[in-house]
Amino acid sequence: MTISSLPASAADYGGASAAFLRRRAFWNRVSGYILALAAATSVLVTVGIVYVLISQSIPFFQHVSLWDFLTDTQWTPVFEDAHFGVMTLVSATVTVAGIALALAIPAGLMLAIYLSEFASPRVRETIKPFLELLEAVPTVVYGFFALLLVTPLLQTFMPNLSGFNLLAPGLVMGIMILPYTASVSEDAMRSVPMGLREAGYALGYSRFRVATHVVIPAALSGITAAFILGMSRAVGETMVVAIAAGQNPRFGFDPTQGASTITAYIVQMTMGDLPHGTVAYQSVFAAGLTLFVITLFFNLLGFYLRRRFREVY
């Protein structure tokens, strides 16, 4: 391309325009390579994680059948009479995550509706930083908060509640993932065109009815993504359950009793002195692979729901 063929706006750069355009093209290419490298790095890291989990889990499944792994209701990898029923860990993980979502979804949705549809700009800009500040609190602090404050408080109303239980960490995890559900949902609601709201007002809808019958259906894909993100965060949480839920593997869904989740078991085993290459050592990777599959399932579910309910304006 010659200088004479450039648009007038580019030719206005004068004698240095050709050098300027060459530099700009060079840095555009460099920026593209850097961004491509960053994207490739994330893919390679994910592939590396999957490779480690699978390569270390294959020897485990050579000693333990997949059927026993999925159907046995005991998890005693370091006992002489070893059992490897991962559903024991999965049941506790699902129970804690379910309690967290039972708190975070309605609370996050109501908070998102208020911030998006009712709060003034000044109030919104005041509340959101405090809400997102919850993400900065270390999870170990949440764990001790659940153990030393929430559990004794719940025991005043539930005397039979165990000192280590699934209820307290579940509630605290609900507070912990509240910024994910509320903030992402609020962003999705605010992206809904104002014309849809005005159409609802023109039909005589109240502000609350517009929020529930117009804005939420229009932003459903983003709201669903927020809930799936919170679910993945709750399933993969480690320190809260490791501190407040106990480390005794127990199959069941009773939240008043303690149990070991998948992440708590991984922490417990990696802090011990398991001999490298033993079945008990390899069970850590089998549990990690199970957690990876669960998280992948929720991410794929979120991807499907976003495509299924996505609205383009």
Overall strand count = 0
The major pleated sheet works out as: none
What is the N-to-C succession of helices and strands? HHHHHHHHHHHHHH
Stretches where pLDDT is under 50 for at least 5 consecutive residues are: 1-6, 8-14
What CATH calls the topology of the largest domain is MetI-like fold
Distance between the termini: 38 Å
Query: In CATH, what is the class of the largest domain?
Result: Mainly Alpha
Q: What does the average pLDDT come to? A: 86
Binned strand content: under 5%
Per CATH, which architecture of the largest domain?
A: Orthogonal Bundle
Shape: globular
| CA radius of gyration | 26 Å
- The SS-based structural class is mainly alpha
Helix content: over 70%
CATH homologous superfamily label of the largest domain: MetI-like
Count of spatially separate domains: 2
Report the total helices.
14
